[in-house]
Amino acid sequence: MGRGDDTIHYDVRGDLTAATAERPVLIMVGSPMDATGFGSLAARFADRPVVTVDPRGAGRNPVGTSALSPDVHGQDLHRVIEDLGIGPVDIFASSGAAINALALAAARPDDIRKLVAHEPPIADPLPDHEAYLAVCQDIKVIYEASGTGPAMAKFIAYVMHQGPTPDDYLDRPTPEPTQFGLPTHDNGDRTDPLMRNIPTCQAYRPDYDALAALGDRVVLAYGIESGEESPARGARAVAERIGRAAVDFPSHHAGFLGGEFGQQGDPEAFAERLRIVFA
Prior knowledge:
- The protein is α/β, with parallel strands linked by helices.
- It is built from nine helices and seven strands.
């Protein structure tokens, strides 16, 4: 769909004409994760059409180096829905895509029947948002200077952190890439879709009033094993800001994965929970 930098690839599973008002098309999207991460989860929704999406700058789409805002990603989701001609839809959006889908829901509420925003790594509603964004900015600086290995090492260490970000977090020793099996050599590439959008993604400020007006059509979700990791805290904080209770899901941030990218969640239990929430 689209041309040049505006190209967005998506895959359709099942017959779009089989969608009903009670069981509409289900869009699954991640960011920076592409559509290949939804194989295990999508296979468990054979009773309805499922569309999996590569977000702009990832997967089969053109790459780049400039940051992409959630508003741009949200507009891309709207374009997919328009291209399919099947709205309103249900959306399961995880990680950065949860923030993108919140942007879509606020801007174009008629596109969605229900949105499950799973573990958005968002800083704005958190009390430690300034320290959080400082860490994200530091990771981006490291990426620009030294490449993927050193930046990902710092990113992984941070996403494992439990609880609010201490003000002195950046004073702590920087982890070595080899601790996580990451390369130390800088290959010069700067198109990594995760690093491309740090901290633009985390710094996004949703339209809380518009989201609150959607009531139970917007569901914030977190993994029961995620504890106080920042994406789970973000889900609960956004839910509180819009007057809703966040919903717990099985497993962790990658709870819907069934071995994709070497990560194992509990896709069977995750799908069952998602089915209940979409009912």
